[in-house]
Amino acid sequence: PVTEAVRIVDEDDSGIDRAFRRDVLQGLSQRQKAVPARWFYDERGSQLFEDITGLDEYYPTRAETEILRDNAAAFADAIGPGSAVVEFGSGSSAKTPLLLAAIAPAAYVPIDISGEFLRASADQLSAKFPGLPVCPVEADFMRKVTMPDAIAGTPRLGFFPGSTIGNMVPRSAVDMLREMRETLCDKTDAPAKLLIGMDRVKETAVLEAAYDDARGVTADFNLNLLYRINRELDGTVPVESFAHRAIWNDEIARIEMHLEAERDVAFTVCDQRFVMKKGETIHTENSHKYTKRSANALLLAGGWTPIRHWRDAQDRFMLILAEA
Ligand code: AVI
């Protein structure tokens, strides 16, 4: 049984997402132009990301799936039965069945900002687990999300796979972890846990290939942001004059994705004019990589105490269980 998704996105009278407009106009007005990575995920962006997860070069999805598959009994032991699994940014929920099959949950609450994708994946999951209450919520999980009444009083397990936390700078990651704690601990005395995926620091060549694949799918994913700006914010960005770049920043332990202007360009977005010199970039994504220590420090700063760590056989990725 799938309940109707609760819609919380804030649009103006002409259907423009106010937060998207604010982020793009502010971001393009900075000296180093930047647009937050969360705006990649319109329907096409979500589909392109799914395609990325199947690429030879993009190891994180396979590594995390391996951890979930190989440690089912250990997850069941550490988490126990009867939790409401609250998945933050569920996307296509591809890894979720492995977790749900391992721990015998009481309910599943997928939260995602992309509503259509959310409903389709909730339906698919419900078909796989008949009898499991599925309560999708269309929302931005960077802020506290009100949980459906259906899971009142049920212990909650937050599930945040995919190393999506890596797409946030530490300050935002800490804010988000605190909001997740608010979401999961609200109106219940039951304990809350969080199972979170983080990508590990490794060789530069492996990291850069994962974000600049030979088929150019990641390039399309990056460039799709410009098409989205043109479509949804009445933009005139000359997309064909931009190129995808992925660079390892060793000081901060992160991959950075940029869109580089290949010639001098001028364009408008919501009637505001912007100019860029050849070689200037729009910084579109950070993907932070962690060691066990840096991951623990981040979780602790966000109000979560790490209690278990699991890794894949090649040491590429980790899943961490923490408690509130
Ligand atoms: C969603 N996120 C964890 C992906 C990552 O690896 O940082 C997004 C991505 N960007 C390019 N490829 C994948």
Automatic annotation (TrEMBL):
Alphabetical list of Pfam families matching this protein: Methyltransf_33 (PF10017)
Alphabetical list of SUPFAM superfamilies matching this protein: S-adenosyl-L-methionine-dependent methyltransferases (SSF53335)
Tree of life domain: Bacteria
Record has Transferase as a keyword: yes
Keyword field: Methyltransferase, Transferase
Keyword Heme in annotation: no
An annotated GO BP: methylation
Recorded coiled-coil stretches: none
Gene Ontology molecular function, alphabetical: methyltransferase activity
Name of this chain's protein: Methyltransferase
Source organism of this protein record: Croceicoccus naphthovorans
